[in-house]
Predict the 3D structure of the following.
Amino acid sequence: DAKTTQPPSMDCAEGRAANLPCNHSTISGNEYVYWYRQIHSQGPQYIIHGLKNNETNEMASLIITEDRKSSTLILPHATLRDTAVYYCIVRSRGAGNQFYFGTGTSLTVIP
Amino acid sequence: DTAVSQTPKYLVTQMGNDKSIKCEQNLGHDTMYWYKQDSKKFLKIMFSYNNKELIINETVPNRFSPKSPDKAHLNLHINSLELGDSAVYFCASSLGQGAGGELFFGEGSRLTVL
């Protein structure tokens, strides 16, 4: 079952940074934080993941608090194509550990 | 080239019928999955296969029978379709069951049961 809490919806102005929060207060030491997004009617798309250090790739940055109980996904310059549902997932590596998607945050980028 | 491809994309059928959805991945992954997304947009895992072996079955009714003829394919057969089976079904794949963690999803197959 999903072990994360995310706001159901957010708006962001085009060109501005979109900061999507996620609470995972019961995260255990061997669980990673993953972010996926689902653009309308498409399959979910992997964005980024991390354990305890901040991570950055060509799509986004992931900031994980020191106590690892929350994290923030940052889209540095949101575009209209970033309008999607964003899912924060905690998962430990290993056989049988699956990705459980919660309800996510519906991000709308406004022109 | 599509990494994870599903067919058909749309399927409309009557209650009680039997139907199949096919999935193929050309990424060389060894683990494949089926997810179901209902009308409320909840995305739930149904099955997970690693090297053609079933490793996860999330209390899915027996009417659903996945079949993996090889590592690159995971098909979903559904018997005696019910109204509640109407959903979008997503196939996904990954390299290993735990390493990396990046799932690649197909575009989905929208099943409508009348």
